[in-house]
Each structure stands twice: as C-alpha cells, then as structure tokens.
Design goal:
The protein is an all-alpha fold. Helix content is 63%, strand content 0%. The chain has one domain: Orthogonal Bundle (434 Repressor (Amino-terminal Domain)), CATH 1.10.260.
C-alpha cells in the first residue's frame, strides 16, 4: 500500500505556495517532485532530512509526514 503524503503536501503549500516552488528550492525538477509525491520513487534518509529542514518538520514528526 503506497504512502499518502497529504500532510506533507499541505506543509509544502503552507511554506512555499506550490510544489513547483518547493521543487525549485530543492533544485529538483517538477517531474522528480511529482514522482516522490506519487510514490513512484522513494525518499532517501537524506531527502527526509533536507525536506524536513526546509519545511520546519521536527525529527519526532517524520512519521506523520513521510510514513503514513
């Protein structure tokens, strides 16, 4: 069963306005962002740390954003 990233999507929009703007900040393509958000490619530990830092997600909150 794939993960659901609704809470993560909400945080991205809250902080950056759009997923596209967040992708630009990360230095990745909109296509790469879409693949991660649609469970076509996974998140590495490094991805989770970088994304969390940019989105002000605390380590103890990782589960509710990346593993639901």
């Amino acid at each position: 069963m794939p993960y659901k990233y609704d809470k993560l999507r909400g945080r991205i929009v809250e902080k950056y306005g759009t997923q596209g703007k967040f992708a630009e900040t990360l230095g990745i393509s909109k296509n790469s962002m879409s693949k991660k958000m649609n469970c076509e490619t996974g998140f590495s530990q490094e991805d989770i740390i970088i994304w969390s830092n940019l989105l002000d997600i605390k380590k103890e909150e990782y589960g509710s954003y990346f593993f639901t």
